[in-house]
Amino acid sequence: MTEARPIIPVILSGGAGTRLWPMSRPERPKQLLALTAEETMLQLTAKRCGGERFTAPIVVANAFHADEIEQQLAAIEGSVRALVLEPMGRNTAPAIALAAIAAGGGHDPLLVMPSDHVITDVAAFHAAIHAALPLVDEGWLVTFGITPDAPETGYGYIRIGEEIASGVHKVDRFIEKPPREAAEAMLAEGGHAWNGGIFLFRADMYLGALAAHAPDMLVAAQEAMAKARREGVRIWPDEEAFARSPADSIDYAVMEKATRVAVVPVSMGWNDVGSWDALHAISALDDGGNHHHGEVIAVDTKNCFVRSDGVRIALVGVEDLIVVASGDDVLILPRGRSQEIRKIIEALKR
Amino acid sequence: MTEARPIIPVILSGGAGTRLWPMSRPERPKQLLALTAEETMLQLTAKRCGGERFTAPIVVANAFHADEIEQQLAAIEGSVRALVLEPMGRNTAPAIALAAIAAGGGHDPLLVMPSDHVITDVAAFHAAIHAALPLVDEGWLVTFGITPDAPETGYGYIRIGEEIASGVHKVDRFIEKPPREAAEAMLAEGGHAWNGGIFLFRADMYLGALAAHAPDMLVAAQEAMAKARREGVRIWPDEEAFARSPADSIDYAVMEKATRVAVVPVSMGWNDVGSWDALHAISALDDGGNHHHGEVIAVDTKNCFVRSDGVRIALVGVEDLIVVASGDDVLILPRGRSQEIRKIIEALKR
Predict the structure, then answer these.
(1) Looking at the complex, does the CB of residue A345 fall below 8 Å from at least one CB of chain B?
(2) Is any Cβ of chain B less than 8 angstroms from the Cβ of A322?
(3) B339: nearest CA in chain A?
(4) What percent of chain B has pLDDT over 70?
(5) Which residues on B lie below 8 Å from A343 (Cβ)?
(6) With 0-12 CB in 10 A as exposed, 13-18 as middle and 19+ as buried, what is A256?
(7) What angle, 0 to 180 degrees and rounded to 10, lies between the N-to-C axes of helices B41-48 and B66-75?
(8) A53, A4 contact by CB (below 8 A)
(9) Per-residue confidence at B4, pLDDT binned at 50, 70, 90?
(10) Cβ under 8 Å to A: B residues 20-39
């Protein structure tokens, strides 16, 4: 590693956020909500890469959220290096391409992060970044592998290969969201990590990998940025050009195909807050195992997660219930079944 | 029985209605809500005593509800003989005294009914009234005894005595709300009925019983009516005079003390709708045992009672739950525990 170059954080704010309905809605998705702390998840993400090692972040987001994002970052005294406002969602690989081009496409390392995850042990995260940097400088694409503590079926897994530097391993292979038995087997066997969707690589190396494995995507992103409208830090990529990009995730389009791909296994209190159950699991609980937030009157409740930003919720004698009220909607479901929220979303669409 | 005199219905609209919170509230108690049909419970009560046998009813109510009561009765093309607007609640015995005086205090029979009960078999109700009339003419105070079908602990019971006319029995004794075992024993033994709070007696005989057993109450009611303000059908009894009346129920003040007290046992689909569980029990259910009313999206729900007049309620995978949303409040409790709503009301007061 030569003279340390500053790392450019790239925060992806693309999620539509149906999994935490009714709080999370297209006009105000999860990352813009304060679900785990006083700050919103976007603010927590930005604060996680403050300090002199990092530049101001590049944020890639839905144009509809531009004002809100700038306000939220201003509120924590953070600035934005560039705010790339996607004309439509095309999944993560094209979004990161826009960011890599906005970053100048040079040697500088990009730290790519979703905007709506929790990391409680920031020191461990920074140590993992530090461990990865020498290989990143050498051109490796690095992903962070979350040490699993349960046989989760909602995440992709990474099989960890040989160690190629202190704390850094080759990726043996990526494994799609597994069935329960496979997840249990991987947990028992060890040597696997969750794919947390956090990446570190040089901008030029990412664009090079796109050139090799997804050239249509690269061309579309380049043209969209060449024709972009710019105003202060805001960049509006050209809609027609960007629409020609295939929609694909960075995992499928790049990481699973590239050759020099490494993983840094890390245990850092990571949680993707992908469901109300997940949020319950990381929330402060009272003696009865309840987490109540907002106007809640609870009598004899046990292991309940109750949250309201509007109506008053009164409960007596219920157990293991998730209740979320927001705007004109109230969601009620049993603990452990919050993935089934999609059934509600489908019913709402009909 | 001589030439049949018309019966004067007396509808008592005094309930504060906390048991069906949050739909029922002091400003809009149960009797003014449409809970069991398109019509409100007050409207159903008034319609139950339409026809040439009955005069227009005397309604005794809280002054705050005067406009709403007149509008509701006008909407079913019913008129009011008198609308007695109590300056404060003093329980049923004084309320009925006001009505008996408003009725003229003569020989005409009064049919006293709570405004918030359900009777599905109106023909059986009318037949019971018909059976009672000869004894009423002779001066008896008659109560209707509901044939019990479960060991309810929330009602008073009547021990049925000897038959003194076809279908009419002496009251052996009144029994206060019993413990579970006593209720089960009475159900097993037979010969007992629930005290449904519906009465038939001559106005003069009721006032005479008050003179004998609760003279302070009678004097207070007479003075309150003598000094009453009147405007059309509306009567405002004098507040200072009425305040001097003891507060007591007709059961304690009169029925349990008078000597010529009869009961007509009747099975007429009666329900006092005294809790959300009670309403669930008499509501139309879907195949899953659910009753949903208002904006409700339910997926995989079973035996749930869900009712909203405001926010949208979305449920997945819940069973045996009562959910009621009204105004800015949502109540959630398990089936079978709706009596515990009082714990919420207490918590709200604190």
Answers:
(1) no
(2) no
(3) A316
(4) 99
(5) 299-300, 316
(6) middle
(7) 60
(8) yes
(9) confident
(10) 22
Nearest chain B residue to A345, by CA: B314
Answer yes or no: do A299 and B332 touch at CB < 8 A: no
Q: Per-residue pLDDT for A333 more than 60?
A: yes
Mean pLDDT in residue range B291-300:
95
- Looking at residue B259, its amino acid is T
Query: Is cis: bond before A265, omega within 30 of 0?
Result: no
Contact across the interface for B311 and A330, Cβ inside 8 Å: yes
The pLDDT of residue B2: 47
Which residue from A314, A321, A341 is facing B344, i.e. has the nearest CB?
A: A314
Task: Please tell me if residue A341 touches chain B, with a CB cutoff of 8 Å.
Answer: yes
d(CA B332, CA A298): 10
Q: Are B78 and B69 in contact (CB under 8 A)?
A: no
The answer to whether residues B237 and B113 touch, using CB atoms and an 8 Å cutoff, is no
CB proximity A329 to B under 8 Å: yes
The first and second tokens of residue B19, run together, are: 């048991």
CB contact under 8 A, A297 and B321: no
First-to-last alpha carbon distance for chain B, in angstroms, is: 56
Q: Which amino acid is at B64?
A: F
Residues composing chain A: 350
Tokens of B263: 């009961």
* Residue found under tokens 């005989």: B205
Average pLDDT over residues A14-37: 89
- Flag if B330 and A312 touch (Cβ within 8 Å): yes
Query: Taken in order B17, B20, B22, B28, is the CA torsion positive or negative?
Result: negative
User: Is residue A1 scored above 50 in pLDDT?
Assistant: no
pLDDT at A177 over 80: yes
Query: What number of C-beta contacts closer than 8 Å exist between A and B?
Result: 103
Phi, psi dihedral angles at A99 (to 5 degrees):
-65, -40
- Show the tokens assigned to B280: 């669930």
**What phi and psi values does residue A188 have, to the nearest 5 degrees?**
-70, -40
pLDDT tens by residue, A191-242: 999 999 999 999 999 999 999 999 999 999 999 999 999 999 999 999 999 9
Which pLDDT does position B322 carry in this prediction?
97
Q: How close A280 gets to chain B, by Cα (Å)?
A: 17
- Read off the pLDDT of each residue in A317-329 and give the average, rounded to a whole number: 96
> For residue B35, how many other CB atoms are within 10 A of its CB?
22
Residue A51, number of CB atoms within 10 A of its CB: 9
Interchain contact, B332 vs A321, CB within 8 Å: yes
Q: Which of A23, A302, A311, A341 to mutate to test the interface with B (most CBs of B within 10 A)?
A: A311
For residue B295, which of B315, B267, B276 has the smallest C-alpha distance? Answer: B315
Contact state of B312 with A325 under an 8 Å Cβ cutoff? no
Q: A340 vs B316: CB contact, 8 Å cut-off?
A: yes
